[in-house]
């Protein structure tokens, strides 16, 4: 479980391991759709998920989530990929004041220059100008599904240039150990490749010779 881990202490290690390695080490479909990309260059996140479900074109649940959020949270929002600017400078400033570390949304954001200036890490499936309503409360804290990944409150979010992985809290400890072992093994592979070995031999990709 994650309770025995301080994510602040693990942040740099998790970012060095990267979303791709942690996803592969998990053995689960923990990756979010590849359309979800950093809203500005260099955005990176490690934190605990606060899941949010928003109706198309309505960002009231995001305001409610900021009110509920705890320091270290990352809002993970299923907005169905709708082309609206659900999040911008106002919500980013409000979120930062509460210790929210970032946003991952299957939907749009705007004010991306200001988000970058604020250093507020946002990952979205698109950038969109169109505004939103504030009528439908959606859900905050209930489990959601984005693509093949199920996200529950307290799951671990790792997001970087490769994409976004959300590791279930219950397998985080094992995933971290597997990721460390995988990274060590890959470094050993890299050394052998630098010495001239070929991937065909290193990975056992050659067909057996015919008798």
Automatic annotation (TrEMBL):
<protein>
    <recommendedName>
        <fullName>Putative 4-hydroxy-4-methyl-2-oxoglutarate aldolase</fullName>
        <ecNumber>4.1.1.112</ecNumber>
        <ecNumber>4.1.3.17</ecNumber>
    </recommendedName>
</protein>
<comment type="function">
    <text>Catalyzes the aldol cleavage of 4-hydroxy-4-methyl-2-oxoglutarate (HMG) into 2 molecules of pyruvate. Also contains a secondary oxaloacetate (OAA) decarboxylase activity due to the common pyruvate enolate transition state formed following C-C bond cleavage in the retro-aldol and decarboxylation reactions.</text>
</comment>
<comment type="similarity">
    <text>Belongs to the class II aldolase/RraA-like family.</text>
</comment>
<comment type="subunit">
    <text>Homotrimer.</text>
</comment>
<dbReference type="Pfam" id="PF03737">
    <property type="entry name" value="RraA-like"/>
</dbReference>
<dbReference type="InterPro" id="IPR005493">
    <property type="entry name" value="RraA/RraA-like"/>
</dbReference>
<dbReference type="InterPro" id="IPR036704">
    <property type="entry name" value="RraA/RraA-like_sf"/>
</dbReference>
